[in-house]
Amino acid sequence: VPRAIAYHRPDSVEDAVALLNDSSHQPLAGGTVLNGDDDPTPVTMVDLQGCGLDGISGDAGRLRLGAMTTLHDMVNDDRVPTGLAGAAQAELPSTLRTLATVGGTVATGNADSILLAALLVHDARVELVGPGGYEMLSLADLLKAGVAAGHVVTAVEFDPSGDCVRQSTARTPSDTPIVSATARNAADGVRLALTGMADYPVLTDPRDPTTGLEPISDFRGSADYRRKLAEVLTKRAVNAIGGVA
Ligand SMILES: Cc1cc2nc3c(=O)[nH]c(=O)nc-3n(C[C@H](O)[C@H](O)[C@H](O)COP(=O)(O)OP(=O)(O)OC[C@H]3O[C@@H](n4cnc5c(N)ncnc54)[C@H](O)[C@@H]3O)c2cc1C
Questions:
Q1: Best mutation site among 25, 26, 28, 32 for ligand 1, i.e. most ligand atoms within 8 A of its Cβ?
Q2: Is 147's C-beta closer than 6 angstroms to any atom of ligand 1?
Q3: What is the pLDDT of residues 138-148, one digit of tens each?
Q4: What is the ipTM of this complex?
Q5: How many whole angstroms separate alpha carbon 67 and alpha carbon 118?
Q6: Does domain 164-240 have CATH number 2.60.200.40?
Q7: Of 9, 121, 175, 229, whose CB is crowded by the most CB atoms within 10 A?
Q8: pLDDT tens digit string along 61-108?
Q9: What is the fold of 51-158?
Q10: Which residue, among 79, 81, 120, has the nearest Cα to 203 in the 3D structure?
Q11: Over 92-115, what HEC string results?
């Protein structure tokens, strides 16, 4: 049964925010989650396609991904660092990459998202707009808090310098990693992000990656197994970028 009981296609972000003032209205981006969801709650979809939120811009200092930029666009843009483009490519199969967007990925905050982990180590910040106007939050803070109702993610910007490296373990080579560690050598030190270790991807201390994290146990691995994986994968990822200074 389709969830959508009504559909709007506003042509500006301001109009989208006005429509989202009603709690039964939800932003629609690529639809890979929203249209496939088996939650029966009826939704009025507010399609963001006409709001001019796609495209990649910026320079060597800071790159900006419009929220409606697809993972396919990220993979095929030479300005996106190789490690980050690789994470976008590995996140989803090609049939979904042409639909799934950066904004939808951020708003979903999937615990296993290697793309979010790569954005975290590139010091990503998220631009949002809501009834109170525009604001910028670090991606780490946004993943913790979630996107507030009535708000639209408009862009994600990040530092493209210093490529990132990912180490991961999955049940099969093409499966979503049980745990992954992504490391980047930034100008002021190493950044490390883990997936599969919390409710959302997290930035953590490369010297002590698992303290304070309470991973779940499920059919893919126990909490102890995940902790062990995180320690081993962190060492490999950090060594691959030259170690912690
Ligand atoms: C078969 C399948 C496999 C998947 N595998 C993975 C995986 O391995 N790893 C992974 O991390 N994810 C996975 N996903 C989840 C999903 O593909 C991603 O999270 C995706 O990037 C969502 O983007 P979208 O544009 O399709 O979002 P949509 O489905 O359009 O929206 C998802 C949610 O985000 C909200 N939203 C979308 N855009 C915005 C915005 N700009 N501002 C505010 N809220 C917004 C929507 O209201 C909705 O609640 C998978 C999904 C499917 C269907």
A1: 32
A2: yes
A3: 999 999 999 99
A4: 0.94
A5: 16
A6: no
A7: 121
A8: 899 999 999 999 999 999 999 999 999 999 999 999 999 999 999 999
A9: 3.30.465
A10: 120
A11: CCHHHHCCCEHHHHHHHCCCCCHH
